[in-house]
Amino acid sequence: MEHSTTHLHPTAAGSFLSTKWMHWVRSARLCLPGLRAFRPLRTLCTSIPRMNWTPPAPTAVPAPPIPPIRDIHSCANVNDIKPLHLHLDWSIDWDAKCIRGAVTHELEVQKDGTAHATFDTSYLDIREVQVDGARAAYQLEARRGPLGEPLRIHLGERTAGDRVKVAIDYATTPKCTALGWLSASQTRAKKTPFLYSQCQAIHGRSLVPCMDTPSRKVTYTARVNSSIPVLMSALRRSSASDVYEFDQPVAIPTYLIAIVGGLLEFRALGPRTGVWAEPPDADAVQWEFERDAEPFLTAAEQVVSPYVWTRYDSVVLPPSFPYGGMENANLTTLTPSLVCGDRSATDVLLHELCHSWSGNLISCMNWESFWLNEGWTVYLERLLLEKLYGPAHRGFSYIIGAKALRDSLEGFQDTPRFQRLVPEFRDGEDPDDAFSSIPYDKGANFLLYLERVVGGLDVFAPYIQAYFTTFQGRSISTEEWKAHLLAYFATHPTASQALQTVDWDAWLHGEGLELPVRMEYDQTLAAEAFALAARWIKAIGDGVDGAFAASDMQGWNANQVVVFLERLHAGPRVPLSYAARLDETYSLSTAQNPEVRLRFYEVALEEQGGRYAEEAAAWVASQGRMKYCRTIFKALYRVEPALAQRTFLENESFYHPIAAAMIRKVRIRSTPTTTGPRLVV
Ligand SMILES: [Zn+2]
Hints:
Number of strands: 22
Strand content: 15-25%
Bound molecules: zinc ion
Distance between the termini: 22 Å
Largest sheet: 8 strands, mixed
Structural class: alpha+beta
Oligomer: single chain
Number of helices: 20
């Protein structure tokens, strides 16, 4: 999933491609045919001197022994039963807004004496259960908050190694938290209704009864009856007269199951990449991504390992999609806010593509280890920015991320256990409650720090390939990651010694607003933005007009404007009169780029509402991406709560259930109660 956005330089990619990295890219392309023989990255980094260390082969350092599964967010008996495959036979009822049908699970018993299988469900209408073709007894247990209602199915006493088929007839209900149903009028084409899903973290269980834990992976097939075309997070096998068939041959955690239905047009972006979009936007969407999609895939294969998923396709959803992107296998879902007309946000596509390795190929065992998905993905994304565009872009991306990280850490000051890289959940807490930039940016900084500790990219790059080769296809915990890292670098005495200086506890379990180590980044692209922000902060502090003009930002890209506004937002409060002056000088409230618009409203609503509160409320009515709507509602509830509440109630049906729930929580947090303790969620 995407959380905080950083951007590629919109236009100057070529000019930033230094001779060194052009060499690297060319070398990378040369070894593409016969992908199995990809060359270790260090041999391509010609400017870094080789060390007298021969890195172990990618598979030479084995993974530590597989521990028992721990996942407090699943009620499934995953240590007794291993799910292998599931088949979905669905009919979509577009009028009733529900999916009816059956799921058939193929299971393998892990322990002698196992007599039942427990599946996760949430708000599902369970109709019948069959075990190996015969009707079977089951209990739908009492609801356990966001974990849902466990479905306990009697299998009869089994022995380890037994294979069992469990078929469940069921239907989704209006309370389903995974599905967003939009009317035709809420789409761009305005011709047919639209359907999309978002299963991460634990919403898959409201779409299909399953062992809804990232610790277990299944292949899946699906047959979907629908009067409107549908796509799934799998390879398309056939489509004929309202029946669509899919096959996901690579085992995935259930949070990567996805369905999208609506009027969509496909555009090829490269030999293995493509994008679906609503017809009115198809040309613009193709233009936005066609320069970058295939080169991103090629570069990622060179840094990590060959791409195993056959195709990398995306779909641009209507604006109510709550995230920037979601890395559903073979079908990344993307917010339309990335289609800015300047290719400035394609790094989100790069982020989702990197999940093909971190998250999808190697998954976190549980939501405490979520940072292994996101920290690694952000680390890879920024490493690829350096490879493709130069080191300034890697540093710039960390600088933008640092602000989002700071905001997230501040937001959890009342819940410091969520400030940890490995958060501590209490029973019945939803993983969505801890969702923030922390696993993304603290995680990426930790990996960057380790890269520097062991001696730089020259030493770290072969480890990256070893990590992804060793654990591919697995779901792992933070402890397994750490054990393998230490074992790998035991072959390098200097690195091994340096790793002993790492304060593991502070990085993994530390709380507070600071990283355990002060990190330095390349500031080339940020320097001008910082300097202009300093001039404004001084003018505000001195209460003077200052000499500002539109030419202050001449030649800037959207990212630099974002960094400028974030620096202002981090400083002393900006009075409304100065916000208006900023707007007059740089036309920020009318910026087409949503990242710029968001940061401007954050600055303008720091002190009071007024004109910009009205504008922000009107804008947020069409922004379903949580990064925008949560932030704006947070600001509005603080300065103009009545306007915020009215705007939310008028547009509630537009937002995805996950986003609507989070906005409701924003309101609770923002509204002090007089009758009892302040609610903290
Ligand atoms: Zn992500």
